């Protein structure tokens, strides 16, 4: 898996902090081209109950490719 950019790692730290605080529904919004698929793949490795909702089949395929890459 590619190394996370600073803002991606910060976003995942924010998600982890929200989980520790007891939040159960957390939304991440990030602009086009910011590496959301990589963030989702990294998050799911640590939070197996994560759910990614996407509106295009291409995004499903992109996420699948990130999950099937060797660690």
Write the layout of secondary structure elements.
Blueprint (H helix, E strand, L loop, with lengths): L5 H15 L15 H11 L10 H11 L4
Describe this entry's structure for a reader.
- By secondary structure, this protein is mainly alpha-helical.
- Helix content is 52%, strand content 0%.
- It is built from three helices and no strands.
- It has helices at residues 6-20, 36-46, 57-67.
- The chain starts with 5 loop residues before the first helix and ends with a helix.
Looking at how many chains there are and whether they match, the oligomeric state comes to: single chain
Helical proportion, percent range: 40-55%
Rounded to the nearest angstrom, the radius of gyration is 12 Å
N/C terminus separation: 6 Å
- The total count of helices amounts to 3
What structural class do the secondary elements suggest? mainly alpha
Tally of extended strands?
0
Main β sheet profile: none
Summary tags:
52% helix; 71 residues; mainly alpha
Summary?
This protein has three helices and no strands. The chain has 71 residues and is mainly α. The longest helix has 15 residues, at 6-20.
């Amino acid at each position: 898996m590619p190394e996370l950019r600073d803002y991606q790692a910060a976003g995942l730290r924010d998600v982890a902090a929200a989980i520790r605080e007891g939040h159960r529904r957390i939304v991440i919004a990030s602009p086009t081209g910011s590496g959301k698929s990589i963030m989702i793949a990294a998050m799911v490795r640590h939070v197996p109950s994560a759910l990614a909702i996407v509106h295009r089949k291409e995004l499903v395929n992109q996420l699948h490719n990130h999950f099937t890459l060797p660690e």
